[in-house]
Amino acid sequence: MITIIWLFGVHGMVIATPILYPYWYANLNANTDAIAHGGAPVHFMTEQFFQWFVWVGGAGATLSLAILLAFFSKAKFSKTMGAVTIIPAIFNINEPLIFGIPIIMNPYFAVPFVLAPTAMAAVTYLAMKLHMVAYTTAVAPWTLPGPIGAWMATGFDWRAIVLCIVNILISMVIYWPFFKAYDKNQLKLEKVDD
User: Fold this and answer.
1) How far apart, in whole angstroms, are the C-alpha atoms of residue 48 and residue 142?
2) Are the beta carbons of 114 and 4 closer than 8 angstroms?
């Protein structure tokens, strides 16, 4: 829902915050309370689940797109956008990318912008349900780089770092064909302008 709303130019968290935050933080509180009483966390669905494993780089898992733009682009505009947006994306700030490319109402990136986080959520859900990675039990500052925030939010579970990196790679694979088509089109436009 959040990424679909973004595609139309509305910041997804504006809609999600009043609806989802009470639910997410009640789950996080229940996890923390369970640990405080010697039990195990029971809820995977927290804001930190999304922040550190699904929205790495911001809504739409756009850190992977920033990496692709910065290191694999042939078009000057694409490469410049990657260089300008990769540092903010590392710290989960993706508005320069969302409005700079733009991703909003962009047919090249609409599908991966929704599909990548969906795939990452499924992988993370399975990893947590199979006890391969600890559930989230703490709030880490949202501007930390993904793997560090994931590690902290799971009570310093080193496997969270691995999962976060795997998710970034999954997202890169999903974005790849759309990125290539976009970059090819940008290159064509640049040749026309020359």
Assistant:
1) 9
2) yes
Name, in order, each residue with C-beta under 8 angstroms of 183's C-beta and a sequence gap of 6 or more: 69, 72, 73, 74, 75, 78
CB–CB of 51/142 below 8 Å?
A: yes
Tell me the pLDDT tens digit for each residue of 77-113: 999 999 999 999 999 999 999 999 999 999 999 999 9
**CA distance linking residue 73 with residue 52, whole number of Å:** 26
User: Which residue in the block uniquely carries the two structure tokens 């040749």?
Assistant: 191
Cβ-contact 119, 169 below 8 angstroms? no
pTM metric for this prediction:
0.92
What does the pLDDT read at residue 87? 97
State how far the Cα of 86 lies from the Cα of 101, in Å rounded to an integer.
13
Instruction: Give pLDDT < 50 ranges for the chain.
Output: none
CA separation for the pair 149, 55 (Å, rounded) = 12
Cα separations (Å) of 46 from 36, 128, 130, 152?
A: 18, 12, 17, 14
In the numeric block, the tokens 């490469």 are attached to: 79
Question: Side chain identity at 143, as an amino acid letter?
Answer: T
pLDDT at residue 20, as a whole number: 80
In whole angstroms, give the CA distance from residue 98 to residue 22. Answer: 27
